[in-house]
Write a structure and sequence with these properties.
This protein has 4 helices and 13 strands. By secondary structure, it is of the alpha/beta class. The protein has a 7-stranded mixed sheet. A 4-stranded mixed sheet has the order 8-9-10-13, covered by helices on one side. It has a two-stranded antiparallel ribbon with strand order 11-12. The longest helix has 27 residues. The chain is globular and about 45 Å long.
Length: 227
């Protein structure tokens, strides 16, 4: 299994479908399990941290016309520009993403407290020179979209965790930044989302992050050792 697949995706795995949105993993066999999402808001589609795949426009069309593409982690440029240009819409970036604009080969728009006029609240999770991340929260249906600080792919999880804090964030988990949410569902940038008892999964992930860190690191080391 490759950690990351760089070739164009000829198919995709659908994840996280609910009335107002859907997610997909363009390369289901890669270890990173890069997940992308599309949310329907007022009859239009907003796309988040997308990895492109053949047929993905048909998935968008089930929810409406694409209104914008947003990048929520400074490293998640992925295929945002390609999809935005195909649909003749801007790539939306949080204002704190300095230096990213020139790396996007598409028109760029900025946002801070709210993503355009979608009603999606923007909450800064990390803002330093090495890592800039913004989570989005829909107060109407309880959807929380977190691109990197928490995830469900194997290298985020220790023991029986359903949701885990990123390995690099475990010593100092984002309790202040994410601990105030009680979401109905959590959509993540790596792995399928949490669609049942999401608030408890988030609470457990943040509360047990440090305590479970040695177990996670030991598992990661075993996986890297030659057989």
């Amino acid at each position: 299994m490759n950690f990351r697949a760089d070739e164009s995706a000829t198919d995709f795995l659908e994840i996280d479908r609910f009335d107002d949105g859907v997610g997909w993993i363009a390369h289901p066999d890669e270890a990173m399990e890069r997940a992308s999402h599309a949310l329907e808001i007022d009859g239009e589609v907003w796309v988040f941290d997308p990895v492109d795949a053949e047929g993905i426009d048909d998935l968008f069309a089930e929810f409406g016309d694409v209104a914008g593409v947003a990048i929520l982690l400074d490293r998640h440029k992925r295929d945002a520009a390609e999809i935005a240009n195909r649909h003749d819409v801007p790539v939306y970036l949080p204002r704190c993403f300095e230096g990213v604009t020139e790396e996007i080969d598409a028109p760029v728009a900025r946002f801070s407290g709210e993503l355009s006029n979608t009603g999606l609240e923007a909450h800064t999770v990390v803002d330093n020179r090495f890592w800039k991340e913004v989570a989005l929260y829909d107060p109407d249906d309880g959807t929380l979209l977190v691109p990197e600080s928490v995830g469900t792919t194997s290298y985020f999880l220790a023991g029986n965790e359903r949701l885990g804090v990123h390995p690099m964030r475990r010593p100092v988990p984002p309790r202040e930044e994410l601990g105030g949410f009680a979401p109905e569902r959590i959509l993540v940038g790596h792995g399928p989302g949490i669609t049942t008892d999401a608030a408890t999964a988030l609470e457990d992930a943040l509360a047990n992050s440090r305590r479970h860190t040695p177990r996670l690191y030991a598992t990661m080391i075993r996986q890297l050792l030659p057989v």
